[in-house]
Write a structure and sequence with these properties.
The chain contains 14 helices and 15 strands. The protein has 423 residues and is α/β, with parallel strands linked by helices. The chain has 2 domains: 126 residues, Aspartate Aminotransferase, domain 1, CATH 3.90.1150.10; 259 residues, Type I PLP-dependent aspartate aminotransferase-like (Major domain) (Aspartate Aminotransferase, domain 2, 3-Layer(aba) Sandwich), CATH 3.40.640. β1 and β2 form a beta hairpin. The protein is globular. The protein binds pyridoxal-5'-phosphate (PLP). The site of pyridoxal-5'-phosphate (PLP) has 15 residues, from α4. Belongs to the class-III pyridoxal-phosphate-dependent aminotransferase family. Its cofactor is pyridoxal 5'-phosphate. It comes from Streptomyces daliensis.
């Protein structure tokens, strides 16, 4: 019904469509977060909650950083943004691209900005397919990914996601996806040989599988072995560091920790610590050269209105300043053992199936089934913590890097208390 001021009152209530949520049963279940400070958030009931998942793996430098807000305010007041499109660009995007290129273990890196991780994946897959077209191997179109892998849910992301439930029910998906078991090098090699290396464009993986399978660190030697197989067969090696990039895995990039030099790297989340949406596909010289070499006639025909959004780039630059000045990556590395040791005793509980972690501030407490996990995540709010379920049945433990030691120690205590409420 239209009211006098032109709004449609019938549509103005409960119109917010939650991602991955059952909407008919949503009214009354909404958990509204209204404020954040450091490692804590506050809900609309006034409760202070330790932000154990750091939102969706992003609040790395912690909430409420005035320095980032000020940098964004300055940029918004000067110029909200100007597109990085055709000849146009803006200085914040140039500055941030150079800063990223100087940080990543990617040779001669070129940075294509997006609005988030899913878009970074789409850009990277188009880029790599175009690269093969231009270099005379157009049959190379397949992208190999891993079971449990997650790289966003846009068109190609949905086609390749290693979680079947996210792929089903959408009709025909984009061709060119091949999924292999997550930690099995022999299976990867067999898939490459069976499919034909000359039909494979890229291998894509997360160094530590995050949300799709609920934090699975790599088996010893798996990632370097996969990288070698890629080199051997000319396959582009794409590393998704959307979660692990900028310190989460205990080094600036997980690639450094595991001795990897990817041809393409995907970034988002920790790039701005979530202060504004921003992602990037970073291409090394091998791929970028087709478009950047002097005399190349080729244009990468891909574009986004908000690529290199100046205010988001300003947030990222201020975020990186904080990360470096406070040595937050060192802090993550020095706390990873403490976090895992604190969580391991939970394995004794009959409702706990597994505790995984040990790679930076990334861990998971897998419970015996999805329903138990949801119940515990719900109950733990009474212990002053916010948690979420990841990988179907696991509690995601990925706190902001600024978490205090006593708060690390409180996490298993809160989970134990919540477990005794549900068991
Ligand atoms: N890649 C990984 C490893 C992710 O965990 C995610 C999101 O959780 C994405 C890509 C997609 O990023 P976004 O949600 O910003 O589109």
């Amino acid at each position: 019904m239209n009211t006098a001021n032109g709004t449609n009152s019938a549509n103005s209530v409960n119109a917010l469509w939650h991602n991955h949520a059952h909407m008919p049963t949503m009214p009354g279940r909404e958990h509204r977060i209204v404020r954040g400070a450091g490692a804590y958030v506050y809900d609309d009931a006034g409760r202070e909650l330790l932000d154990v998942p750091a939102g969706l793996w992003f609040a790395n430098v912690g909430h409420g950083r005035a320095e980032i807000a000020d940098a964004v305010h300055r940029q918004l007041s000067e110029l909200a943004t100007y597109p990085v499109f055709g000849d146009f660009c803006n200085p914040r995007a140039e500055e941030l691209a150079d800063r990223i290129a100087g940080l990543v273990p990617v040779e001669d890196a070129k940075v294509f900005f997006t609005s988030g991780g899913s878009e970074a994946l789409e850009a990277a897959v188009k880029l790599v397919r175009r690269y093969w077209q231009l270099t005379g191997e157009p049959a190379r179109q397949t992208v190999i990914t891993r079971e449990g892998g997650y790289h966003g849910l846009h068109g190609f992301g949905t086609s390749i996601v290693g979680v079947p439930a996210f792929r089903e029910g959408f009709g025909a998906l984009l061709p060119g996806a091949l999924t292999v078991p997550a930690m099995d090098l022999a299976a990867l090699e067999a898939a490459i040989l069976a499919h034909g290396p000359d039909r494979i464009a890229a291998f894509l993986c997360e160094p530590v599988i995050a949300g799709g399978a609920g934090v699975v660190p790599p088996a010893d030697g798996y990632l370097t072995g996969a990288q070698e197989l890629c080199r051997e067969h000319g396959i582009v090696f794409m590393l998704d560091e959307v979660v692990t990039g900028f310190g989460r895995a205990g080094s600036m990039f997980a690639a450094e920790r595991y001795g990897l030099r990817p041809d393409i790297m995907l970034l988002a989340k920790g790039l701005t610590s979530g202060y504004l949406p921003l992602g990037a596909a970073v291409a090394g010289g091998r791929v970028a050269e087709a478009f950047w070499a002097p005399g190349s006639p080729h244009v990468f025909q891909h574009g986004l209105t908000y690529s290199g959004h100046a205010s988001a780039c300003a947030a990222a630059l201020a975020n990186l300043d904080i990360l470096e000045r406070e040595d937050l990556v060192g802090r993550v590395r020095s706390r990873e053992g403490r976090l895992l040791e604190a969580l391991l005793p939970l394995r004794e509980h009959p409702l706990v199936a597994d505790v995984r972690g040990g790679t930076g501030l990334m861990a998971a407490v897998a419970l015996r089934g999805h329903d138990v996990a949801e119940e515990v995540a719900h109950a733990v709010v009474n212990e002053g913590m916010l948690m979420r379920v990841t990988g179907g049945d696991a509690l995601q433990i990925s706190p902001p890097f600024v978490i205090g030691d006593e708060d690390i120690d409180r996490i298993p205590v809160a989970i134990s208390a919540a477990l005794s409420r549900v068991s």
